[in-house]
Amino acid sequence: MTVTLVTGANSGLGRATAFLLAQKGHKVYAGMRDLDKGSKLLDLAKDYDLSTIEIDVSSDDSVVACANQIEANGDALDVLVNNAGVALNSVTEDIDIDRAKEVMDVNVWGPVRCVKAFVPGMRARGTGHIFQVSSIAGLIGHIGQTVYVGSKFALEGMSEALAQELISFGIRVHIVEPGVTRTAILPKNEGNPVPTAYQDHYDRMFQFYTAGIQASVQAETFAETIYGALTSSDYQLRYTCGWGGKEIGERHRAMSDEEFVELGSLVSSAEEYGHAFFDLFDLRI
């Protein structure tokens, strides 16, 4: 039996992934900070081998305690899905440094804590899968989200290094870059710092996410992407999914840096920005 831990599994992408993998026969530990928020998932998965487990990826002690509990249950982790994450809307000038540090602690150091806790066992057994949940914000310097972008760019680079570090030990690292999906993180991430000289920038960001939400791509597409990677005989480092994932990944690589930067000169007009965004990314916002 495959033993899997999914962090941030109380809602959204994490819950969909934990549920699907349990359906597929995994023994799933659905990690979350507050076990009271796991009741919906437990109801969904009552016929499968899924249990909730407390883990706060921003706490060294919590991550170690989670690893110890899984070991005490007689289980050894085969699959780690580093999904827990938080967002923050802010251009650089508006950044609240203390809040930004909290985002980095969850989005960057959280996966590192989990790797340090669970990879030694995988390495000793010579097998394992690690999924690092990035974002399309790890592919482009998305407007209005400097801190979130920074955390995902950092995760991307560190995950590339991790993949090289672990491949000779039989452990496969996968970076998943979801576009916009209908998850709980979106309504939690409304608003922006005020007062600000950058309201147009924030408005263009919300314009993008509104279009993505209206596309109504469900979290199950993300879960299916992870299951597909697990069951494929061919190794692949990166996967995109969700609204805009494929288009932004491919189009950003094809355009010049200057073309991308120039898009920022159009933020004062929703219509002009939308047309230019379509020309660059083939996405209507």
Structure in words:
By secondary structure, the chain is of the alpha/beta class. It has one domain (3-194, 217-253): NAD(P)-binding Rossmann-like Domain (Rossmann fold), CATH 3.40.50.720. 50% of the residues lie in helices and 13% in strands. The protein has a seven-stranded parallel β-sheet with strand order 3-2-1-4-5-6-7, sandwiched between helices. α4 links the parallel β4 (79-82) and β5 (128-133). It is globular. The chain starts with a strand and ends with a helix.
Short summary:
By secondary structure, this protein is α/β, with parallel strands linked by helices. It is 50% helix and 13% strand. It has one domain: 3-Layer(aba) Sandwich (Rossmann fold).
CATH topology name, in short, is Rossmann fold
What average pLDDT do the residues reach?
95
Label the CATH architecture.
3-Layer(aba) Sandwich
Instruction: Give the topology string: H per helix, E per strand.
Output: EHEHEHEHEHEHHHEHHH
> Largest sheet, order of strands side by side?
3-2-1-4-5-6-7
Radius of gyration: 19 Å
- CATH H-level superfamily title: NAD(P)-binding Rossmann-like Domain
Q: What would you call the structural class?
A: alpha/beta
Rough shape?
globular
User: What's the number of structural domains?
Assistant: 1
Measured distance between first and last alpha carbons: 44 Å
Main sheet record: 7 strands, parallel
Count of helical regions? 11
Give the proportion of residues in helices: 40-55%
Q: CATH top level?
A: Alpha Beta
Low-confidence stretches: none
Strand content: 5-15%
